[in-house]
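S., here's the first fold you wanted:
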Amino acid sequence: MPVIHCCQYLFDESKMPMVGERDDDSGRSKRLLVGQPIRRWRMERGLTLARVADRSGLTVGYLSQIENEKASPSLAVLGQIADVLDVSPAWFLMDDAPPPRVVRADERPTTVTDLGRVEHVDGRTSRDVSIIEVSGVPGGRVGAHAHPGDEHHIVLRGRMRLTQGEHTIEVGPGDYVRWDGSIPHDGEVIGPEEAAMLIVRIRPPA
């Protein structure tokens, strides 16, 4: 049956791109190691190689070679394994991802303003947002200012009066406020206690 033969040739697994291989800048093949993540998720699911083989239609020997980095699965095979383990195929590639960026509380860049302390929770490392914690003494005031992008506020403690244009609101612990940061705005601590607020500024696309 020539039509089936043609289809078999077009989808010949040996001709499909290998997940475990890619070209680096020098043109040489560079392997992406997926065996360990596959083994980790298989064990997390409590499955034996035999059970995965039975459910995926692959052989135990081939699965063992993949887990021991002796074979590079095609995209189709990786999808079969992912279906059995009930995960996204992308999860097998997460070992190539950069480690999380951690900013310790005592490492936050901090400045002192007329309002009080301004701490950069994200350490000024985030690409798309700016996360700061502002704490102010009673009567402290930010002063009118503006900047591009939306700004989200969550009051952590104390009370504040927020002003933007003709709008003035008073907020307390747990209250949330969002506004367009490009419109001049101001903030003032009211009441006898120190106030603190977490602010998330969304940076507009460059």
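And the second, which I think is the more interesting of the pair:
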Amino acid sequence: MDTEITLLESARNMNKEALVKIFDLYSHALYSYALRICGDPMTADHIVGDVFAKLLDQLSTGYGPTSNLRSYLYEMTYHRIVDEVRYSQRRVPLEMIDVLPQDGQSTFSVLEDRISFELVERAIRNDLTEDQRHVIILRFLEGLSLRDTATIIGKNVNHVKVIQNRAIATLRKALVYKVVNTTGSVAARRKHPIQFELRPDNVAMSPE
């Protein structure tokens, strides 16, 4: 916390090294988040550029964050994404999502070889509302806390919990449906069940 405050103080004084360090620390993560939502590299790059331009403008005039810089940047990115896609009719593609590590520590761990992570991508893309999509991506792909997620999307923690629980329930139903269609029968589904582990809350999710 002290290091972050010192970094922000230096950045507010337009210290070049501090500004470069902030960009190096957060630009990749913000770009990844924007890309996961909007699906277009050029748009994601443009959004992140706007976020840092706005941050620079705020710091130069004595405003901007005094602490919790990461949440502040994610919040600005969230609002730019919402502005960008609000009137768009595109479905939100997640094909650009980074491949998650399969070492037991990944957010979603697919434990059955026959059920690929592609099913999860499709379910997030096609079956969740915009708020649910943001919450799932921020919580389980970006690894942010409930409190930080609530701050970013402008809702209270309890509301985020409700959105998260509904999103998980929707994903479970959607994935069961997709597995039945993929394997051809309920019996086949029982032979090859889906099982996920949502690490941030230690909550197991299974269609069984």
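Why I say that: The chain has two domains: 2-85, 117-205. Strands lie at 196-198, 203-205.

Talk tomorrow,
H.
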